[in-house]
Helix-turn-helix domain-containing protein (Dictyobacter kobayashii), 161 residues
Amino acid sequence: MVLRSSELHHNLQYLNGMLTTHEAAKHLDLSYWHFMHLVEAGRIPGVRVVDRWLFSPDDLNDYRRSKFGVLEDMARAALESPAIGLTEKQTVICHYLIANERPSEIARKLQQSRQAVHSQISLIREKVTRLQATSLISAESPTIGNTTSPIKRGKRTQASL
């Protein structure tokens, strides 16, 4: 969307609260150049006013959610199920993920490598998947286990033929 200077005063209310390119990049914890690459590729919506881009915080949060929402949902599922057996470090990582922290930010805060944090996230994902598979199987098992055949199978004899 491009706004001309004559249209600008009509749209000031909409523009109130918008973030500049540098502010938006910082909001998403991305470098300016990577952020601009995403904008130019159309992955992050923005408004071009004369020669500047402006971004809605809501659009930026939607982008973050689309990128990291699966991790947040996984972290919630892991924390809600004590049967998963998370380690202390995995529990801390889940809390950070729910608080919208990116894995690179978590690594900095825990003074761990990004690879170590990603490995822990992979282990959490495996535990959640295993628990979901187990609960799915156990939900189906009573139906399958309770079905008994009314016909008893045995050897046929010549008389029954």
